[in-house]
């Protein structure tokens, strides 16, 4: 009986929970709205309607609250006159076509304190200038506006505004007040709408600007427009301009403000209308501080009327063109990394790339390019010249591959000396005798070979640096001398190359404490990454674990500290290594109980200067002290047991820097940020909890500077480019490495 009673109570509770209904304060307005728009029965729960999403008010309430309204198109046009302000928990409000808001909605829109998005497919009321939008609103989208837009939307704290498909009657307001909140703006332009040219002055933190130009095919009196160059788009990353009609386009002069977009990395131009003013001269974008500017034009006439070169890009840029008609002489290729051109109707030869040292990829297709493929194109790592009208000859590097392999790059084309049946023929194939033969042990090094007609390196273990003339052969982790590797080149030729691994080289040490356990670690290069390392400390041999790290960071190897002989404070000891039959330098280090920096982070001026660093430095012996930032030495001008003063070099603004303090071979790291010049900022004095700043408990494991004592020998490293390692440090990398190190002891 008790069981039956318990089950009955459970079922009653379950059914009650399953019968949650809309909050009574919202029921009337929602029932009336759904009934008038869709004929939805007044007796039904509005939360059961497909256009409405509700959630429980809280975990204990049986009532639900409306969070999303996604109102689909009704059978006839409808104007919402109901007061929706009771929907206090509304987060998304979407109205599809034929649903309109009354002006009263904007009198109480600020009451929706949780509203994140408004989406309107039909819009015919002007928003009053004194409208206050809720602080929570992040996205406002309007389609088909047929009335003037007031200033309120553009002067709010909304981050994303999208205005689309304007109708007759639409116009843009005069913008007055600065708005630092707007990040994404999509704005239409018509010949009658007007255009606020002061965008860069009022939207000071804009990230993306989209301009959609609707040219109203049957109208006259088109008005050209531009953006004033009085302001600076200091954060603008993305500019997109689209023209919908090309018969009688308005013109937008792109010169006027692009000189004030210092960090933009994407520019997209579609349709006829964007112009480069010939009176201004070349559109020089080379000043832009973009990592990889992508400049894309589609069906655009922007380059059509250029007389000579009219556009230049920042370094490592990409140019991409579709369905345009322009001369390649219009483009300065000197800073381009990639060049793509498709369906260009201008008859011409392939572009001259003699002065394009960075160019790595060329793709030209379905265009009216004629003549020869120059020999200079052999150095392009990614080459695609198919479906053009090239009617001259191909260079020797293509002939080396034959039609089967080379055809994928240059056929079909009516070439004179090359077709799909051409046999490979490579009499000029040559490998230079000199190549890199001393490599790091961590697997990051390559044998760099040079020669003639070496191919595009399709084979395993080959990577093109410069196609056909400079290739890298991947070498795995290892140790020792007198190694060799045989590779097959793209044209079928084979080559055997001999190399050795660099001998071990010790840079510094640290004593790591983690989870109550201390570990003695040494830092350097040339360690064994696959097996254990033989380390000698004060003439006593120890077997340290296989090295970790490598790449852009030095290697790390270590063992339990309690197995290492006890050192007296400030006593010296010697360390050396034997790896793969090769001996390291013998280094004299000094032991200290505590070396640490109390600053959590160091902020420096990009112009260089002087700064004090506080901490506990173990000794007053300045001959044992060195300081570097990312491997560049700093001048220590003053040093005590608790404070040191350094003169530091200039650097680019950024936070990817690490300062390394080395005291007698014991290295400690500190995160460094460079900011724009001025007075040297005061360092943070909050002690760091990372291993790099509290070495008494968890000392740094990322030393990078050579100990103050001069090593007996320095191994020859691979060249600084093409696969060699660098000394740039990463604290987070070494923290991960430390955890891996500890796992090997467990």
UniProtKB/TrEMBL annotation:
One of its GO terms (biological process) is pinocytosis. Gene3D superfamilies: Immunoglobulins (2.60.40.10), Ribonuclease Inhibitor (3.80.10.10). Residues 680-724 have a biased composition (Low complexity). The keyword Signal applies. Residues 678-724 are annotated as: Disordered. Residues 1-20 form the signal peptide. One of its GO terms (cellular component) is plasma membrane. Keywords: Signal. This is Gp138. It comes from Dictyostelium discoideum (Social amoeba). The lineage of its organism: Eukaryota, Amoebozoa, Evosea, Eumycetozoa, Dictyostelia.
